[in-house]
Amino acid sequence: IGVLISNIYFRNPDLLADMARTVDHLSGGRLILGLGAGNIERDFREYGFEFASTGERLKALEAGIGRIKRRLGRLEPGSIGSLPLLVGGSGTRVTLRLVAQYADMWNSFGPPEEYAKQNQALDEWCTKVGRDPRAIERTVLLDVPEEAERLDDFLEAGVQHVIVGCGEPFDLRPIEDLMRRARQLT
Question: Please, are residues 35 and 85 in contact by the beta-carbon 8 Å criterion?
């Protein structure tokens, strides 16, 4: 249970940690805490936030992750689940370094060829920071039906967990088809 990412700019990191721990308890320990630096200028403007530079947003993400981890470590009672941290983003120089250092899960998007390059960059960052790349679950936000035909390509690119996006109208038939195909792979 969780949002794909919570933009670090939109909430105080200490408050977000408290909120995450509460949802973790309410969900029976099933929360995934998704974080990101945000890259949609319209969202910042609509919520009354200045759209900072990419570098500033990434610095805020790194500082926010540190604050959240410290706060979660001090909360009593603590989380009842593992409360994995998912970091979303595709930047190979900073974002994937943060994933390698701090995250349990990583999310990006396609096409599969780009995902494969990002996945390789994440493995390289894991080596640089001394972390086993297998410790990070690889997820993708898959637009259905547009990208569903390329499921096998995403799996070859390293995807372990598919998060399905569906636009309007909410026609679930492409998602049902994707689920049937996924079951055939297992």
Answer: yes
- What angle is formed at CA 177 by the lines to CA 34 and CA 163, rounded to 5 degrees? 5
Length of the chain in terms of residues written: 186
Q: How far apart are CA 65 and CA 60, in angstroms?
A: 8
State pTM to two decimals: 0.91
CA distance 178 to 8: 32
pLDDT tens for residues 58-110?
Answer: 999 999 999 999 999 999 999 999 999 999 999 999 999 999 999 999 999 98
Backbone angles phi, psi at 109, to 5 degrees: -145, 180
CA dist., res. 43 & res. 114, Å (int): 25
User: Mapping DSSP to helix (H, G, I), strand (E, B) and coil, where does residue 78 land?
Assistant: coil
**Quick one: three-class SS letters along 101-118?**
HHCCEEEECCCHHHHHHH
Q: Torsions phi, psi of 34, nearest 5?
A: -95, 130
